[in-house]
Amino acid sequence: MRTLQVLADLQSAVRSARCAGSSIGLVPTMGYLHQGHLTLVERARAECDLVVMSIFVNPTQFGPQEDFVLYPRDLERDRYLAAEGGVDVLFVPDVDTMYLGGSGEQQVWVEPGSLADHLCGASRPNHFRGVATVVAKLFNMVQPDRAYFGQKDAQQAVIIGRMARDLSFPIEVRVIATVRESDGLALSSRNVYLRAGERQQAVALSTALERGRKAIEHGERDPRKVEQQVLGHLSESAPEADIDYVTVADLNSAKPLERIRAGNVLVALAVFFDRTRLIDNIIVRVDSAALQTDEKAAAQR
Ligand code: AMP
Question: Does residue 29 have its Cβ closer than 6 Å to ligand 1?
Answer without folding.
Answer: yes
